[in-house]
Structures are given as structure tokens and as C-alpha cells.
Design goal:
Elements lengths: L5 H19 L10 H6 L8 H34 L3 H25 L17 H16 L34
Helix pairs in contact: 1-3, 3-4, 4-5
């Protein structure tokens, strides 16, 4: 392995991210005491913010962050389930899938389960464009929650909404022969 190759820089990044998470222990080293964020971990405020939070706040802090993301994502699923219009429901499900993919890929990359991709952690990573698009998508999805009903939607994609939308079967024309 040569110094400066893509493989060595990826392993360097993942190794320092795992060192940061491991150094945090149960309750972390405290705000301002992170060694990895100040000199060894590349992109510490952008892609590696999960590892820095692991060192700063420890395992308890990471569980809290993952719990907050789980609550947000479950809220999106609840909104999608209670929307009456199928198109609006699909918009919310799309935002849910996008946010879930970002959270899972970033956390998996920082813990060494997946290779580094450069995908940011929604709402926590530094970056104006990522924050702008994430906040816009979540804002649209949560604005649609104003149009929810009191009961979950009963129909599915396989069952039509009402009789007016059902296509009538045309009887076959028989050949006289």
C-alpha cells in the first residue's frame, strides 16, 4: 500500500472515525476536548460529524442522536399513512426514503460498515446546500401533515379507492364460425 493512494486515505479516515467513536466511551470527553476533530479526522464538521459527536458525547449521545432521527423518520411515516391523497403520501414517502438513506449511509460509513461516500448527516453536517435541501424537503413533508385525516388510509395501491375509478371489463366479442 502506497502513501497517498485512495485506499490508504479511505482507511485512514475510517480508522480515525472509529478511534474517535471509541475514545468517547460511555459519556464522551466533553465539548472542546475532542482530539480527533482538531487534527486527525478529515472533514470533521462535514462528513465525520457522527464520529466527532461520538467522541464528544459518547455512546449515550450517539444513542440520543439516533433516537431523534428515528422519531423524525417515524413521524414522516405516520404523516404518509394518514394523508388522504395518494400523491401527497408518495411525496412524504420519498422524503422519508431520502432522509433514511442519508442517515443510514453516513452512520454506516463512520462505523466502518460501508465505504465512505461523502453523504452528509441530515441537519447536523456543515454545508449550506445540504441543509437547504434537507430543510426544504422536510418542510414540505411536514406541511402536508396539515392535510391528514383522523384515521389511517384504508386503501392500498392494489385496491381501488371507489367504484368510479374501477375500469369496467369489456365483454369479449365471440367469433361466429
Amino acid at each position: 500500500m502506497t502513501f497517498g493512494s485512495a485506499e490508504s486515505s479511505d482507511s485512514y479516515h475510517i480508522e480515525n472515525a472509529m478511534i474517535a467513536i471509541g475514545t468517547g466511551g460511555l459519556f464522551g470527553v466533553g465539548i472542546g476536548n475532542s482530539v480527533q476533530a482538531m487534527g486527525y479526522l478529515p472533514e470533521s464538521i462535514n462528513d465525520s460529524v457522527f464520529a466527532v459527536m461520538g467522541e464528544t458525547f459518547g455512546f449515550v449521545g450517539l444513542v440520543l442522536v439516533v433516537t431523534c432521527f428515528a422519531v423524525l423518520l417515524m413521524r414522516l411515516l405516520k404523516v404518509a399513512n394518514y394523508l388522504e391523497d395518494m400523491e401527497e403520501s408518495l411525496i412524504v414517502i420519498g422524503v422519508f426514503a431520502w432522509a433514511t438513506a442519508h442517515v443510514v449511509v453516513n452512520i454506516a460509513a463512520m462505523t466502518g460498515i460501508m465505504p465512505l461516500t461523502g453523504i452528509t448527516l441530515p441537519l447536523l453536517s456543515y454545508g449550506g446546500t445540504s441543509m437547504l435541501f434537507t430543510a426544504t424537503a422536510l418542510g414540505i413533508a411536514l406541511q402536508l401533515s396539515c392535510y391528514t385525516s383522523r384515521e389511517p388510509r384504508k386503501e392500498t395501491l392494489s385496491k381501488p379507492v371507489n367504484e368510479a375509478t374501477v375500469r369496467r371489463r369489456v365483454p369479449e366479442i365471440r367469433r361466429r364460425g
